[in-house]
Fold this protein.
Amino acid sequence: MGRYVYLFGDGKADGDATQKELLGGKGAGLAEMTRIGVPVPPGFTITTEVAVDYSTRGPEYGLRDEVRAEVRAALTRVETMMGRKLGDVQKPLLVSVRSGARASMPGMLDTVLNLGINDDVARALGREMNSERFAFDAYRRFIMMYSDIVLHVRRGKFEELLETIRHQVAAKKGLPANQWNAEELKRRVPDSDIPADELEKIVALFKGVVKTETGHDFPTDPEAQLWGAVRAVFESWNNARAKTYRKMHGIPESWGTACNVQSMVFGNLGDDSATGVAFTRDPSTGQNRFFGEWLPNAQGEDVVAGIRTPLPLRREGEEAAGTGEGSSLEAKMPDVFGELGKIRDRLEKHFRDMQDLEFTIQRGKLFLLQCRSGKRTARAAVRMAVEMVKEGLINQKEAILRVEPSSIDQLLHPALDPKAPKQLLARGLPASPGAVTGQVVFTAEDAERRAGQGIGVILVRIETSPEDVHGMKAALGVLTARGGMTSHAAVVARGMGKCCVAGCSAISVDYREQVMMITIYDDEGRKKDTLRVKGGDVITLDGATGSVYLGAVPTAPAALSDEFAELMTWADAARKLRVRANADTPLDARTARNFGAEGVGLCRTEHMFFDGERIPAMWEMILASTPEAREKALDKLLPFQQTDFVGIFREMKGLPVTIRLLDPPLHEFLPHESEQLERLALETKTPLDELKKRSVELHEFNPMLGHRGCRLAVTYPEIYAMQVRAILEAACEVAAAGIEVHPEIMIPLVVTRPELDRMHELVERVAKDVFARTRRTIPFLYGTMIELPRAALLAGDLAHGADFFSFGTNDLTQTTMGLSRDDAGKFLPAYVDQGLFPADPFQSLDIEGVGGLVAHACEKARGVKPAMKLGVCGEHGGDPASIRFFHAQKLDYVSCSPFRVPIARLAAAHAALSEKGSDATA
Ligand code: PEP
Ligand code: MG
């Protein structure tokens, strides 16, 4: 560790924007803003290295003396800059102590505001600011926050007391508080209505709670308060919600959070004070317009907590927000708004990206408290990236790297069918795109439970908090009654790519009764009706418009924007890997082409046998007791297969199509239920006993390692012969129609060279026959999957007998790790949760183990045939982290499900551009 603390203030800073790893996103942003002359209250950042050291040593050892010494020295410098002192009873300094990790984790880590207050300081503050009310409001907020985060006293304990006081205030005003629930009471008697003397009483009561709950007095020494808060911020890295968030976003556990200690400025000093958040461009659509929300006479936490509905920044947004004419910052404080607008332009030019800003106005003076690259929907990310290239702010390669490959999944989501009839219930804010239908649930726990039963649910909350994150994750969509576009629900849902309608004020939620009431208005805006929606009722959300509908509404496929198409052409030019699709039907093939697939990397032919009218022929084939009988049944299956292949070849118009011959064990095709067996006996005129006997014969204890893949064709060569005939006859038919075809015949589950050669002879024999009969020769490739460790180890030998290899990383993972694909779901999540595996190896390739076999096989294959065509067709072909590895192995292509094709194209471009030596930012 070098230095521990980095100072910023008065136009100078020790750190800068490049030091995100050390200072966290927030610390680096504060340093850089200070450097370029943006008004930032002075402060300092304690590095992430200190945090990591603190938790590695164990929190019981506390902060090192050297760290404390540097913090004290930095604090003295800040005190000098501010002309104030922590704990001073004339001119006290209050500070905020905030977390700030390398990657933004909104609301997941802890923050303590207004630190440095005790009884004497509160009085001094009251005198100085000429407002006792302000001073005691800050004091009670501080006790609540500090006790919750540092002393671990439940917030609810304080809320209960506050509620009692609110009742008293309401009673004095003659308001019917008894008829309201806690949420309503909070809204009708806001904090600003509680007078100073009541607040002073609350402070005393709060201190009593701390004493009862912890056995100690609330700490009155500001420096002791500071050490407590710094440690709590470091420790918040390990709270449960932060862990869940990191897992979802792939943020390493080892990073730790920096800690920012900064002089407080106050947005709650009256109507000339305010606080707000802003995005330099619209984070939902990407449109280049200043966008944000503010609250007069409030502290930052009030905006994100969603307790009060925030007002729009710009006049233009007043109507959409429904907050009334003249409610915007632009209208209320035009000068400050003008200054903020200039800072917006400067910051965006300086950082060359959309920024998320937090600001406070203290008695008419503007301060910036945060600036970081803003979270955005995938749609916004694409639009901003492309427009910034046009504006000359960034280059094409940077634009590609600005769009997270996995995020574009959101763009491929369906939207509501515009023509479908629907009953509008209410309209809220379009917080995160997508369209979903589901049953209403009111708690995160219910969301998780019902989703676990396979039921699609929509989580409805008055507002969400970090405790709800697991429920949001489980739900298809989120609806909140309160909170703006920057509320917790909006920010978190957007990050998850989950549909969200926020701030839907026409609904009121009653958790106890498990209902939401919706007030329906007529065209003139008069109250017309009230509707009850209970838990379990079905509603539909449209995240693009903020509309909420009763019942299910059909969806229409996603329409991709012109900007998306343009970005993808840049990505295509940048990538080296080709991207194919796993497609089993002509329809899949068409979808895949529309998404930009450059061929079919895997057609699993067994899927073609399951179809309604084909399955009886399949049964007949399996039950046949002689090769002749089997061939007769296969003759019935042949036209079906051939029709499908013709369809796929036509859709793929000249692109390569890899068709894999039958893979799964035969017993999978036989019915297992006795009722079905009886029906089958009738239909096939086979004695029931014989069917049962055959079923038993085919039964395997471990079918995944049993009679499947090419092993089927060793015992029943007629099956593969029929398939090869179907493929090549289809190819001849399509070629005869003037369409180019490039079939690639692939053999599954090969482990030895003799197996591969045996299958090759079979394929060649059938091909010769087909070409002789059709008088047409279609060049085709012959290859194998590499999906068993032995095949990977002996890939050099196999390469002599194959034109191409395709890594079947699903089976290769199963067999290398000894993890059953069918059963691992029961314990794999525990392995990932407990950090024993970094990720589910069936989703993201185990690079060291399974990847090691892939790398070995590539090397051996190229040793025999330097230009050997190598691809991958396991699930990992659509996973961005695995794609980086496949790129590094210089594979020719990855193949994945059609909907993942755009993700894979972009991920392949990322892999190429992130490579050492790439001129991505040139
Ligand atoms: C594989 O094993 O990776 C593969 C693509 O084949 P399947 O999933 O059909 O076993
Ligand atoms: Mg396989």
